[in-house]
Each structure stands twice: as C-alpha cells, then as structure tokens.
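Record 1 of the preview.
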Amino acid sequence: MNLLIMRHGEACTQIHEDAQRPLTELGKLEAKVMAKWLKSTNIELDAIFVSPYLRAQQTAQTLYDQLKLSIPLQTLDLLTPAGKAGEVHDYLDGMISLERYENVLLVSHMPLVSYLLAELSIEKSAPIFATAAIAQIDYNKQLMAGHLINHVCPDDFV
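->
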C-alpha cells in the first residue's frame, strides 16, 4: 500500500498561537504544486488524516480541492507537532486493517513528519521535510513497515 507523509505548506510566523498560523501565499502555492504531483502519480487516496492545526487543515483542503476528492478529511489530534510517532503508527495500523485502506495521506508538521518516516520505514531515515514535502512509503501491512520510495518537495518542480 502507499503511505504518504506530508508536511504542511509554508505558514505565517507572525501569529502568537501556533495552532492558528495560516498558510502564506507561498504555502498555498506549494500545496497546489504538490497536488499536481499527487495527481501525476495516479494514486487514488482512500483516506486523508490531518492535524487539527490551521496550516495543516488548509494544506489538506487545498489538496482535496485540487484533486477533486470525495473522501472525508479526517482530523486526527495525534498529528500535532508534539505528537508521538509510535502512537500514530499504532493508530494507522488499526485503521488500515479495519478499513482496508490502500492509499493513505497524513498531513502534519515538523518534527513529527520526520519521526513518522523513521517509525514507519524499514530504512529508519528521518530527513528534514521542506514545507509541503511528501514522503512516499511502500508500506507492508504484515510487517507494519515499508520502504521509502520517494521524497519530493515543491522545489523539485521549479
């Protein structure tokens, strides 16, 4: 199955409450660029799990609109910047087996996206994610881990 881990687009830094920081114009453009890339992969998403923070919600909504999706966006409190990768992994494995998902996208934040990649990939790599970057894992449901097969960011398409 395809497991995609995405960092939100660039967010405004002049808001005092972290959870309420909106995307900048560049962040909105980054999300649109990555939606275009996702469309080119022909991956039909079964589920999108997104942090409750505004910038992640806006990133997910941009993808949703650009890809003309009909699946619901599912807000997951585990996906905040301070979330724990092990807890997200456990939740995902349960949902994947219960719902029989084949293509799942997570939209979250640094540092959690790096920790998730290390937690969910056999390679255990934890690279820094540029804003709106997406890591693609070929996830083996039986092993509950997979191989990193792609890591792309908006700058790859300039």
